[in-house]
Amino acid sequence: MKKKLKKALRPIYYFLKYDIVGRFNKGTYSKIAEYKNVCKGEKCFLIGSGPSLRLEDLQKLHNSNYKTFTCNSMFKTFDKVEWRPDYYCICDLGLFQTIEEKLFVAQKAPIFVNEGIYNSAVHKEKLIPIRVKVNWNYPQKRYFSVNAEQYVYPAGSVLYFMMQIAAYMGFSEIYLLGCDCNYSYTKTSDGTIKKTGDKDYFMEGYEERKGVQPFNQFDVVLPDYVAAKKYCDTHDIKIYNATRGGKLEVFERVDFDSLFS
User: Which domains can be identified in the chain, with CATH numbers?
Assistant: First the structure.
């Protein structure tokens, strides 16, 4: 009974937190306006931590003209490669609270976060807070933000957060790398979690949150990627998937290495 009540009250909670409170805190989110179309017509990579990613890929990007976004705990590669992302993104509050001190020291470029992370952060200097708007029609309908200065939409993956920001910044070509959409464990429709693979991440010792086992929710996030493609196709933005393998077939596949030949 308590669980049902909590679920029923959740829409009211989100409405008060994001739609009402957010309107009175517009100044908090004004920093994102500096990034509108700042990279108009340029190309970028959105880099995930899937098993297919290679450290030499990051080094190759370091020596290229592509701008790069990455997320979560990717700063753990900084002692292994010269590459550094131009932009960093985090949506998971629990993860941020775990890595904040190390990330603050390691990452020099802007870090895009949602308001929950920004409000809890000790170090706010590098953070660019973005308001998240509740999708009241979720999961029946998925939306892609037309203006990140106002808000972005939430999804089951930080990759969707990065896509909306990259589109707002004016990038005309967006390449995905290490976005396998595949973990070693899968959660079935009845809630059962079973082992379906061998690796979660690209590097030994890499993990998001200690003791927290990630699992596949690809069917949940797939409609978000379809929504992203629909928006970008009608706004002269191309999204390509340069990931080696993986499950994501929504976007046109390209060979990563051929982009540098």
Answer: 39-260 (3.90.1480)
